[in-house]
Design brief:
By secondary structure, the protein is an alpha/beta fold. The chain folds into two domains: 201 residues, NAD(P)-binding Rossmann-like Domain (Rossmann fold, 3-Layer(aba) Sandwich); 82 residues, UDP-galactose 4-epimerase, domain 1 (Alpha-Beta Complex). Helix content is 44%, strand content 16%. The protein has a seven-stranded parallel β-sheet, sandwiched between helices. Helix 2 packs parallel to helix 4, helix 6 runs parallel beside helix 8 and helix 6 crosses helix 10. The structure holds nicotinamide-adenine-dinucleotide (NAD) and 2'deoxy-thymidine-5'-diphospho-alpha-D-glucose (DAU). 2'deoxy-thymidine-5'-diphospho-alpha-D-glucose binds next to helix 6 and strand 8.
Length: 328
């Protein structure tokens, strides 16, 4: 099977390529990625076929989609803080890029899987145990999540109007190796390794539903293999933790005092809580997460950043300069 992986030099895409190489000998992978600040070819094994190009470039996309049996679309501008600073690349990549891929999938009748986020549903109250389900109305908060919501809605329309053979997955917050140092967990791990105190937005009571990146990607393969065309599947592993607890756990695992962090300015419009009901994925497709214990997953992630400074160091200074400018 010829598989085109867009955004394969990013965090989740690179882990998807690695998992696929290890578990799917029938898959012949090509990565399409234009290596933005978030892309890093060093995240990929050198033998993987790689095309440097933009998912919004119709000619490049047409040729690659036409030569593929399956497209798995990870490429995106993915960071909320950046979208609050400058939304324009989010519109280009997340909306125009998805449109370009959908049109090519329509022309060539190529199977398409769309990677999306739980943030399209907005947020949940801190109190109570409500969760997002596939029926939760779309209500995105940030420019990032609004462009992801728009791209999901295009996929649904292209299925219904043009018969594109597509599925969608909406996943919660991922953690694991190869995640850019702008994101919460790698930012704090690399801060501590640099002797800098972790930075917590506001009071730190916001809740995220953490899942290991390999569990996300095994869910994606379950949907590609056994999912119903036109369907949306939520991916989550019941990993709700508030940010304060994450920082305290990281500090403890790294041998620091639990209160050795700073509160910084909150993110504007900061979503309070995400929580996923993944029962459709579990009951219909028989998927189960393999990484049950968040604390040991965090410990392994800390070890990975400790051992792979050459991978993250080049991005660290520019990332912290950006946060300094944003006051966070
Ligand atoms: P990332 O920012 O680490 O990687 C994005 C990749 O896309 C990079 O390699 C970048 O170079 C590439 N890219 C960006 N614009 C491009 C363009 N115009 N053309 C070609 N390539 C381009 O992102 P990530 O965290 O790996 O997220 C991947 C996908 O998963 C995104 O669609 C995101 O919305 C979704 N998602 C992420 C999470 C999470 O916790 N990180 C959770 C749920 C869903
Ligand atoms: O829910 C899925 C989403 O998860 C994905 O769609 C996004 O691509 C991904 O970036 C992530 O979005 P978040 O905004 O939740 O992730 P981030 O790592 O930026 O922040 C996680 C939480 O930590 C959030 O409540 C903000 C907070 N935070 C973040 C940073 C960078 C801090 O308290 N301090 C920080 O320095």
């Amino acid at each position: 099977m010829k598989v085109l992986v867009t955004g394969g030099a990013g965090f989740i895409g690179a882990n998807f390529v690695r998992l696929t190489l290890a578990t799917r000998p029938d898959a012949e992978i090509t990565v399409l990625d234009n290596l933005t600040y978030a892309g890093n070819q060093a995240s990929l094994p050198p033998e993987v076929a790689f095309v440097k190009g933009d998912v919004a470039d119709g000619d490049v996309v047409d040729a690659l989609v036409g030569a593929s049996d399956l497209v798995v679309h990870f490429a995106a501008e993915s960071h909320n803080d950046n979208s609050l600073d400058d939304p324009s690349p989010f519109v280009h990549t997340n909306l125009i890029g998805t449109f370009t891929l959908l049109e090519a999938a329509r022309r060539h009748k190529t199977r398409y899987h769309h990677i999306s986020t739980d943030e399209v549903y907005g947020d949940l109250p801190l109190e109570g145990d409500a969760k997002f389900t596939p029926e939760t109305p779309y209500n995105p908060s940030s420019p990032y999540s609004s462009t992801k919501a728009g791209s999901d809605l295009m996929v649904r329309a292209w299925v219904r109007s043009f018969g594109v053979a597509a599925t969608i997955s909406n996943c919660s917050n991922n953690y694991g190796p190869y995640q850019h140092v702008e994101k919460f967990i790698p930012r704090q791990i690399t801060n501590v390794l640099d002797g800098v105190r972790p930075k917590l937005y506001g009071a730190g009571l916001n809740v995220r539903d953490w899942i290991h990146v390999d569990d996300h990607n095994s869910g994606v393969w379950a949907i590609i293999d056994r999912g119903r065309i036109g369907e949306t599947y939520l991916i989550g592993a019941d990993g709700e933790v508030n940010n304060l607890t994450v920082v305290r756990t990281l500090l403890e695992l790294m041998g620091q005092e639990p209160d050795a962090f700073d509160h910084v300015n909150d993110r504007p419009g900061h979503d309070l809580r995400y929580a996923i009901d993944a029962s459709r994925l579990r009951s219909e497709l028989g998927w189960e997460p393999q990484y049950g214990d968040f604390r040991s997953g965090l410990a392994a992630t800390i070890d990975w950043y400790r051992e792979n400074e050459a991978w993250w160091r080049p991005a660290k200074l520019a990332t912290e300069l950006k946060y300094e400018r944003l006051g966070r």
